[in-house]
């Protein structure tokens, strides 16, 4: 039922501009949205009287390129039964190279072969999946009052790669971690425009994808409880309405509901605050009926201070662009091959990678193993020790082995935990020798890590020698690899979109060095740190690459 209602919400977005004229020119409007989308608005014409089957098929594809988005004119190319059953909001296929076969008579109907190359697919929530496959279909046309109409269209929208580039943009929508203490981002693509807030809210109304349902939660009522679209008033307040009473919610439930909605809608240009209403009126939270987008910073996915850990002349330091600071209670750590630290926990790996040491309060905890990867300390202070045989977590001196069943058969070459601690990322080598970049959920019971969920491969077709994976944000990974730009820092969104050297908006080329490992300082804007083979650290920020004043560095993390 919820799936059907979410499809209806998507259809509402698609049909939101149904009152626009049935034909007209392409026009230009002022681009004030700041998302770099095309400003061209296009209203395709409906089917012409006496159009041939081939013209009807081509017109149907053209009608799905309307902007602002509307499925009304596309539905005019369908038979009445097909128009009633067609579900344009179910999915979106991005295509190139459309081809059409000859019309083949079949009694009173016609068959036309339609083909295209799919380059990406989006589900109804906007989740992106790269594709590269040729699709061939036979579409049947029938006469309706003497005019040809399509009787069996595929569900979903079909848009060209040019249309996708012009009007779709990536956004993060937000769920909650299992404890409800912070938000967890989920990447989607949505069409920009007046209906963007409605589309973003529709993306979270169905809840997290099944692959992440065990590691995240949602306080947003089910999709069938949403009322209409999300308008924005002249004061930049987005009105979100539900058809159920909300005033009976406890204080903490109200805050979690508001945090999830505010974090999601703040990505829509023009939204400065949110007003949440139920069937019993406006919901007040903390005595306020309007929730400012800056009011829920405490739910931020990352708790980092922006510094990274580094071992300089065998002494532990936390580095940023200007300063080196000692970690209280820890000075010399000796020779190490890997390090990770927050304000209270320090983890190191011995030079031969056979010993893993965690320093917390009390005596250090040592773990023996084979070929330990660089350590990871997550936002909860849990330390991750990964070697050739097992994944272990260390907390308060307790060492536990984590079930990694879904990862059996692959050899991990680097490992990282997302800023929200809800996902893992890893580079791996398969038994056949293939390289993979993987992500998956971290599954907990009673807030204790129990196992790693099944991984999804992030497409990186142009990369090899992948290593030193790290999280830039909750939806973007960075790693060292060989690619089209040589041996570089590369980054990619976890849905496989936007694979590029460096980070969006930053310098692409790494200085001529031999990179050893990579770290990210998560602050208001990510900073990339690269350690080279000579023990020097370079920082990439909006100022470009610069040398950090630290010599004889053996590890960063």
Quote the average pLDDT: 89
Number of domains: 3
SS content category? mainly beta
CATH topology of the largest domain: Neuraminidase
Put simply, the count of helices is: 7
Low-pLDDT segments: 1-33
Number of strands: 40
Fourth-tier CATH superfamily name of the largest domain: TolB, C-terminal domain
What is the helical fraction, as a range of percent? 10-25%
Q: Judging from the principal axes of the Cα atoms, what is the shape?
A: globular
Oligomer: single chain
CATH architecture type of the largest domain: 6 Propeller
Radius of gyration: 26 Å
Text of the CATH class of the largest domain: Mainly Beta
| Largest pleated sheet | 6 strands, mixed
Strand content: 35-45%
- C-alpha termini separation: 46 Å
Describe this structure in words.
Residues 197-288 form the GerMN domain. Keywords: Signal. Residues 1-18 form the signal peptide. It is a single chain. With 557 residues, the protein is mainly beta. The protein folds into 3 domains: 2-166, Nuclear Transport Factor 2, Chain: A; 168-299, no CATH class; 308-556, Neuraminidase, CATH 2.120.10.30. Helix content is 12%, strand content 40%. The strands form 10 sheets. Strands 3, 4, 5, 6, 7 and 8 form a 6-stranded mixed beta sheet that branches. β34 and β35 form a beta hairpin. The two termini are 46 Å apart. The model is unreliable at 1-33 (pLDDT under 50).
């Amino acid at each position: 039922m919820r799936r059907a209602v979410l499809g209806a919400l998507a259809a509402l977005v698609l049909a939101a501009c149904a009152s626009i004229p049935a034909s007209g020119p392409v026009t230009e409007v002022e681009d004030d949205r700041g998302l770099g989308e095309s400003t061209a608005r296009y209203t395709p014409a409906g089917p012409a009287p006496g159009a041939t089957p081939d013209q009807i098929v081509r017109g149907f594809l053209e009608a799905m390129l309307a902007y602002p988005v509307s499925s009304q004119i596309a539905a005019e190319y369908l038979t009445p039964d097909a128009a009633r059953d067609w579900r344009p909001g179910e999915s979106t296929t991005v295509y190139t190279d459309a081809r059409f076969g000859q019309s083949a008579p079949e009694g009173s109907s016609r068959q036309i072969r339609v083909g295209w190359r799919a380059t990406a697919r989006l589900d109804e929530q906007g989740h992106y999946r790269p594709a590269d496959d040729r699709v061939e279909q036979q579409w049947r046309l029938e006469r309706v009052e003497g005019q040809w109409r399509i009787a069996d269209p595929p569900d979903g929208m079909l848009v060209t790669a040019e249309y996708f580039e012009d009007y779709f943009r990536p956004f993060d929508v937000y769920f909650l971690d299992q404890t409800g203490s912070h938000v967890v981002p989920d990447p989607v693509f949505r069409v920009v425009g007046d209906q963007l807030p409605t589309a973003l809210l529709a993306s979270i109304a169905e809840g997290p994808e099944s692959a992440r349902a065990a590691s995240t939660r949602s306080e947003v009522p089910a999709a069938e409880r949403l009322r209409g679209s999300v308008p924005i008033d002249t004061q930049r307040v987005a009105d979100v309405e539900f058809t159920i009473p909300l005033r009976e919610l406890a204080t903490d439930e109200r805050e979690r509901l508001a945090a999830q909605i505010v974090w999601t809608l703040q990505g829509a240009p023009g939204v400065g605050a949110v007003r949440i209403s139920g069937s019993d009126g406006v919901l007040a939270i903390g005595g306020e009926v309007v929730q400012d987008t800056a009011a829920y910073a405490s739910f931020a996915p990352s708790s980092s201070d922006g510094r990274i850990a580094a071992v300089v002349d065998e002494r532990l330091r936390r580095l940023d662009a200007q300063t080196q600071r000692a970690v209280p209670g820890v000075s010399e750590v000796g020779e190490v091959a890997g390090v990770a630290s927050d304000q209270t926990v320090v983890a190191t790996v011995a030079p031969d990678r056979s010993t893993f040491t965690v320093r917390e309060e009390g005596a250090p905890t040592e773990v023996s193993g084979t070929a330990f990867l660089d350590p990871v300390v997550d936002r909860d202070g849990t330390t991750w020790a990964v070697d050739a045989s097992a994944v272990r977590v260390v907390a308060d001196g307790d060492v536990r082995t984590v079930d990694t069943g879904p990862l059996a058969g692959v050899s991990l070459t680097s490992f990282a935990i997302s800023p929200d601690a809800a996902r893992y990322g890893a580079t791996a080598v398969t038994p056949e020798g293939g390289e993979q970049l993987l992500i998956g959920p971290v599954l907990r019971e009673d807030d204790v890590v129990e196992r790693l969920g099944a991984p999804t491969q992030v497409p990186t077709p142009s990369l090899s020698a992948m290593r030193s994976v790290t999280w830039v944000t909750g939806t973007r990974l960075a790693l060292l690899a060989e690619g089209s730009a040589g041996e570089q820092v590369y980054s990619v969104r976890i849905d496989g979109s936007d694979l590029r050297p460096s980070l969006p908006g930053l310098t692409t080329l790494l200085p001529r060095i031999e990179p050893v490992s990579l770290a990210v300082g998560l602050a208001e804007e990510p900073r990339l740190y690269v350690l080279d083979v000579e023990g020097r650290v370079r920082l990439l920020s909006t100022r470009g690459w610069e040398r950090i004043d630290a010599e004889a560095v053996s590890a960063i993390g």
